[in-house]
Amino acid sequence: MNAASLLLDGLPLPFSPGQTIMEAATVAGIFIPHLCHHPEFKPQGSCKLCTVKANGRYVSACTMPAKDGMEVENNSPDLNDKRRTLLQMLFVEGNHFCPSCEKSGNCLLQALAYELEMLTPHFTQFYPDRPVDASHPDVLLDFNRCVLCELCVRASRDVDRKNVFALSGRGIGKHLIVNAESGRLADTGFSLSDKAAHVCPVGVILEKRQGFKEPIGCRRYDLQPIGMQVGQRPGSEEGC
Amino acid sequence: MNPAIEQRKLRLATTSLAGCFGCHMSLLDIDERLFDLLDRIELDRSPLTDIKHCGPCDIGLIEGAVCNAENVHVLREFRQQCKVLIAIGACAVNGGLPAQRNHLDLGQCLQEVYLTGPGIVCGQIPNDPELPLPLNQVHPVHEIVRIDYFIPGCPPSGDAIWKFLSDLLDGRTPRLGHPLLHFD
Question: What does pTM read for this prediction?
Answer without folding.
Answer: 0.95
